[in-house]
Amino acid sequence: MLELKNIEKSFDNVNVLNHVDFSVEDGEIVSILGSSGSGKTTLLNIILGIIQPDCGEIYFDGHDITEVSMENRGFNIVFQDYALFPNLNAYGNIVYGLKNKPDISTPEEVQELIELLGLKEHLNKNIEQLSGGQKQRVALARTLVMKPKILLLDEPLSALDGVIKESIKDKIKQIAKEYHLTTIIVTHDPEEALSLSDKVMIINGGTILQYAKPSEIINAPSDDFVTEFILRQLEIKRNNILALFGSDKAVVV
């Protein structure tokens, strides 16, 4: 379990995170949902260990990791721009991290991931030859072969659309289930968060407004901001909500 307790962070005397408390169960997919400047990326970076909170504690499996370095936390991230190496082909990118830690994944496990992500026919392609969805899958494979304790995804679907976007969502859910991998996603897209996650955290102005299952957020938004952010932004009609969540008590504006 990952637990954050009373996390606060300021930059230039401006509060970015205020008394953030939440926990993530093993194997859960959690989305941190908010608009630009809401504090979600800062929160992701604190979990990863890129930056330190001004106060508060972070626990993983009961151990205080607040001051543990990023390298020693065992978490890993897929960045929004994929951060692939252009001088390597797809396979070279996937196995890059294993050069220094070859015992983390066996060749059979690497092949299993390649098959799972549908990358077998793309392994010899240069990065510029790959589509956006293929690059995203290569970035996922490169992270997963390192067997992270927690998978962090920064706007994983923002550059994708249509069928490709739905395919990657399915892959993320499949990976989390098959590997029992705790997954934390930062996104600004309510539809993405609600359809992909076990729980959704809505954050605004550095404060958690609601942290609950998607159906609970749709049926019982915590305040007017959540209602507007979720329902008005998506223009979700009552019938669509009923079909997705199977409820006759959905809030509609």
Percent in strands: 15-25%
Helix/strand order, N-terminal first: EEEHEEHEHHHEHEHEEHHH
CATH homologous superfamily caption of the largest domain: P-loop containing nucleotide triphosphate hydrolases
How many E-type strands?
10
Structural domains: how many: 2
CATH architectural arrangement of the largest domain: 3-Layer(aba) Sandwich
| Sheet having the most strands | 6 strands, mixed
Instruction: Please state the structural category.
Output: alpha/beta
Radius of gyration: 19 Å
End-to-end C-alpha gap: 36 Å
Low-confidence stretches: 236-241, 249-253
Q: Which fold name is given in CATH as the topology of the largest domain?
A: Rossmann fold
The CATH class of the largest domain is Alpha Beta
Mean pLDDT: 89
Strand order of the largest sheet: 6-7-8-3-9-10
Number of helices: 10
Question: Could you characterize what this model shows?
Answer:
There is one protein chain. This protein is α/β, with parallel strands linked by helices and 253 residues long. It is built from ten helices and ten strands. The strands form two sheets. The chain has a six-stranded mixed sheet, sandwiched between helices. The chain has a four-stranded antiparallel sheet with strand order 2-1-4-5, covered by helices on one side.
Furnish the topology, listing elements before pairings.
Blueprint: E1 2-11, E2 14-24, E3 29-33, H1 40-48, E4 55-60, E5 63-64, H2 70-73, E6 75-78, H3 90-94, H4 107-116, H5 132-144, E7 150-154, H6 162-178, E8 182-187, H7 190-196, E9 199-204, E10 207-212, H8 214-219, H9 224-234, H10 238-245
Parallel strand pairs: 3-8, 3-9, 6-7, 7-8
Antiparallel strand pairs: 1-2, 1-4, 4-5, 9-10
Helix pairs in contact: 5-6
